[in-house]
Amino acid sequence: MKSINEIEQNKDIRAKIEELSEPEYQVFTSKLLPGVSNIIGVRLPKLRKIAKEIAKGDWRTYLEYASDESYEEIMLQGMVIGYVKGSLQERIPFIEKFVEKIDNWSVCDSFCSGLKVTKIYSEEMWLFLQSFFQMQGEFEVRFGVVMLLNYYLDEAYIEPVCKIFDTIRHDGYYVKMAVAWAISIYYVKFPEAMETYLKRNKLDDFTYRKALQKICESRAVDNEKKERIRNFKK
User: Fold this and answer.
1) Which burial class, exposed, middle or buried, applies to 156 when counting CB atoms under 10 A from its CB (0-12, 13-18, 19+)?
2) What is the pLDDT of residues 10-48, one digit of tens each?
3) What does the alpha-carbon distance between residue 183 and residue 140 come to, in Å, rounded to a whole number?
4) Per residue in 161-200, is it b (16+ CB within 10 Å) or e — as a string?
5) CA 8, CA 113: separation in Å to the nearest integer?
6) Which of helix, strand or coil describes residue 106?
7) Helix (H/G/I), strand (E/B), else coil: 142
8) 117-119-122 Cα angle (round to 5)
9) CB contact set of 20 (below 8 Å; sequence gap of 6+)
10) So what's the pLDDT on residue 3?
11) Confidence tier at 233 by pLDDT (50, 70, 90)
């Protein structure tokens, strides 16, 4: 049960967020996130400023009792987890709890980009992520995939990452698009290895086609490689 202090803290944070809202930006963001109805309309740099201040204080209590009423309040929690000082192990319970709240690609991808602690604890995070690839929740799986393309774009991880892509069996649109996106990002850096993978992959047809499409749309891929990729179509 929330105490008077926690209730007041949530009211103060909500008031700050509402003060920073921009009607035009609310409309813009809503168009990008169909189905998300609790958007106030605050630009992410302004939310990050609030998050940094919270992370300097009693962030554990804040995260324990933070309000989930708006898109911005949920986004803010993810930012705080990224900004706090401390080990990965200390953050794991908060990461697990937060991932359960994710219900759109924007919160998911922003949260992943903010977990820069992964660069310090890459092996520990790798082990932690393994359970997410077979979960039932669409954004739980997407979280795992986006973490791969953010922090494991390394030659040593190509083979295990591709094996993960092949084992994901989730019908969610945002899972399939995340896998396609990740494959295109890996292709830019490791074209030969990824072409080998694409010739023997176990992806579903939709994800496979989207991966090829994203590679061909990438400005970082030259025309010769794009032409080869077009010939990969099943």
Assistant:
1) exposed
2) 888 999 999 999 999 999 999 999 999 999 999 999 999
3) 18
4) bbebbeebebebebbbbbbbbbbbbbbeebbeebeebbee
5) 30
6) helix
7) helix
8) 100
9) 42, 43, 46, 47
10) 57
11) confident
Give the three-class secondary structure for 195.
helix
- Do residues 229 and 213 lie in contact, with contact meaning Cβ atoms separated by under 8 Å? no
- Cα gap 144→96, rounded to integer Å: 12
Per-residue confidence (pLDDT) for residue 234, from 0 to 100 = 61
CA distance 195 to 177: 19
pTM over 0.85: yes
Rounded Cα distance, 146 and 30, in Å = 22
Residue type, 39: I
DSSP state letter for 233: -
Q: What is the pLDDT of residues 140-169, one digit of tens each?
A: 999 999 999 999 999 999 999 999 999 999
User: Region 192-220: what's the mean pLDDT?
Assistant: 97
Tell me the two tokens of residue 232.
């990969």
The pair of structure tokens assigned to 147 is 């973490």
What pLDDT is recorded for position 120? 97
What DSSP character marks residue 103?
-
Residue type (1 letter), 136 = Q
Locate 172 and state its tokens.
């969610």
Q: Report the C-alpha gap between 119 and 150 in whole angstroms.
A: 10
121 phi and psi, to 5 degrees? -115, 50
